[in-house]
Design a protein that fits this description.
37% helix, 13 strands, 5-stranded mixed β-sheet, alpha/beta, elongated, single chain
Amino acid sequence: MGNPLFDSTSSEKPQILSISFASDPSGSLGAQLNNQDKGMTSEMFTPSYASIQRLLDGETVARKCGVEVGDCIVAVNGEGFRRFPPDFKEDELEDVTAAIEGMTVKEDSDDDAAKKLKATVVAGKPTGDAYKAVLAKIKSVKKLADPEKPLVLNLERYGWDSRVNAWPRFLEARDGDVPAAMMMIQQHEAWRAQTFPIDLTNKGLQDILKAKAVSELDVEHDSLPPCVYVNYGKLQTLQDHKPQDVVNAFVVFTEIMLARAKNPSAPRTCQFIDLSGVSISSGFRVDILKKVYAAFEPNYPETLHKMVMYPVSRVVAASSKMLLSFVNEKTKKKFIVTDSLDKVCEELGWDKADVEACGGVTEFMHKHEKAGDAMIFS
């Protein structure tokens, strides 16, 4: 049985990782670096000037040592290259290096001078020079190819909803307006503190989870994000739940899926609203959608890839702008309201033949729903 309290899948506290080139002093890291020293406001909460942008194919040092996209290089051979001082003491952080067989790096962490050097802040340089300094340090150590002093990189790994990764999304949601984005992210952090942990044993939420009225579709597609499935008909027939229970179900699945994003700075989900058997003109409870949107838009900005509502007749779809008037224009562009199964499959990366073989969208969902038994409490 799982934990009855569901907490946020991200936090401000990073994990740490140290990788050594001791076995191959002149070897390549096997990763493409991201220059985070371009003088952009989106970089202001990033602790490093260089991070991992992409992992190269093959048995590289990066892959062997468990490096991931988004990891921030904060020190090279004990010398810090930070934008600002660390917020946490190193002994407070989880060291994921220890979990990788044969890759643990021992450092003289009890030396105060070494700790101070490792936390060095590089400031006051012209734009781009701090990034160049990181590269120069790496190259100088590798050039020596000294087996006694191999290249050692210290990295920090931040969650998808930490300020490091979330700030650019909030900034984009407010069109680059820094004060507005700052207010938005502060309000989000207050919302997060009030919302989590979510009590999974709440009866209304349990009814939704047991009925699979909100669930995750497990359909593999390399280029498209995972999908939250909503059976709107079931939601409207369930008796003992409140709109907030639906919001909580959305939040739980969204948090789980965003935490699995390969790039924590660009987490995405899709949402599929199954309207089979629901009459939008007479029986559609828009209050549920409004409540979900009111929580989703200010707290998960720029994470929605597409929301697909199906099946909706062309006549009703033409008037959907009025129905969805509470949605901002930016988000509305990501909404697909359609009666075309071809369009649904195109937008969500589904195999139409598989959907039809199952007998329809609802049956397709039952085949591909990701088990959430750990969240079911009798």
